[in-house]
Amino acid sequence: MKKTIIGYIYCPIDELGLFQNCSAGQVISKADDNPPWIIVDHSLGDVVVAKWPGRLWRAQVCGALEPQGHTGNYTRCVSVKIIKEVEIEILFGEFGSKIEKILRFASTLQLPTAERLAAQRHEDVKGIISKGWHRWMKKNGIADEAADENMDGILMVGNGAHTSPIGHGLALVHSGVWESAQREIGGEAFEVGEDDIWLKPPWSNAVSALMEAAWALGAPEFFSSAEIEILLESWNQRERL
């Protein structure tokens, strides 16, 4: 008897495809076994959220592709049974609803607000996120060969279940502000180097402010109350003139 595989399916809103109108109990099947296949991640920690917003389902594999021909904690399949739709905030940890609020804010950010976020960051904020990263890595037994390394701008560490204390939330905050900057002022928002491109101020500082808020609200256990107050300085004043 084959083992029953139950896991998660994540789809960005603009890539729902077969899952556009699915509901609990429904069997979703591809017409053939050619790629792209339906991907069922075996745990929440394995779900890759490369684009946001999206929808998340708990699902059972009905028709697994054979052979699988890959390494990783997921199953390629051509047919699944939807068990239920899951609140998307669960992808960002215990305080996921707060992270989702920050993501919505990042994706609709306008230039005046980006400037306000940048201007209102606490003068002592640098280095606090770095401390959070090292504390989180220590708690999760992740090799930290450079405990003094500044990790303020890091979006994720490693792969799978251990990417950050809020999953892919930090990377999504960054991409949300990136897309807002592109929409608001186009190429003027970016600095282009030989091999890279990055955000200019105030957008770069706005990203930092929102990542600081995401850490403080999504992973408060890694900071003192004084550190949380500093991390939230800009976020708490985001709507003030």
Describe this structure in words.
The protein has two domains: 6-86, no CATH class; 91-236, no CATH class. The longest helix is centred in the C-terminal third of the chain and has 17 residues, at 169-185. The model has no long low-confidence stretch (mean pLDDT 93). It has helices spanning 96-107, 111-119, 128-139, 169-185, 203-218, 225-231, 233-236; strands spanning 6-12, 27-29, 38-41, 54-64, 74-86, 190-192, 197-199. It is 32% helix and 18% strand. α1 (96-107) packs antiparallel against α5, α4 (169-185) packs antiparallel against α5 and α5 (203-218) runs antiparallel to α6 (225-231). It has 241 residues and is an alpha+beta fold. Strands 1, 2, 3, 4 and 5 form a five-stranded antiparallel β-sheet that branches. It has a two-stranded antiparallel ribbon with strand order 6-7.
